[in-house]
Amino acid sequence: MNASSSVWDPLVRIIHWALVLAFTLNYFILEPGNDSHQIIGYCAVALVLTRVVWGVIGSTNARFSSFVRGPGAVIAHLREFKQPPESGHNPAAGWMILLLLILVASLGVTGFLMQEVDYFWGNQTLEVIHSWMADTLFVAVLIHIAAAVIFSIIWRRNLIRSMVTGKYGK
């Protein structure tokens, strides 16, 4: 692969960094349940839905079919622990991306149910599930960041920069 090949299109990068901002605001800054928290949550769900559509019809590296592989491919990738020859996400990262998207969407659904559906208003179980999913998302985000940093060092490719510039290079 060319040292400065394009890997992430602008829409993927915009969605990625908008989700970073939404998560940071809702997890660390905004008061849970207030209007701002809800609006940011709904925006995050819209971003996830856009990413899902783009994961089907978007550019080659944006398509889920280019990086979501079966369990055998994930195990083989983790066992070999080597740089994949292709650009984009490796098989393990593909599943992490799905987990992150599912958690954000699920947080939006549980948040909506807690705030907008009378039947669930004040439901402690739903609040616990919502909180647990937020904490699980936080752990998944930490793993995602750690993996990007570690593999940037091991493979000598700045994976974080590629999500800023769109280029896959050193």
TrEMBL record:
It holds the Pfam family Ni_hydr_CYTB. Residues 7-166 form the Cytochrome b561 bacterial/Ni-hydrogenase domain. Keywords: Cell membrane, Membrane, Transmembrane, Transmembrane helix. One of its GO terms (cellular component) is plasma membrane. The keyword Lyase does not apply. Its main location: membrane. The chain crosses the membrane at residues 12-30, 36-57, 92-114, 134-155. GO terms for molecular function: electron transfer activity; heme binding. It is found in: Cell membrane. It is a multi-pass membrane protein. The keyword Transmembrane applies. GO terms for biological process: respiratory electron transport chain. PANTHER family: BLL0597 PROTEIN (PTHR30485:SF2), NI/FE-HYDROGENASE 1 B-TYPE CYTOCHROME SUBUNIT (PTHR30485). This is Cytochrome B. It comes from Pseudidiomarina taiwanensis.
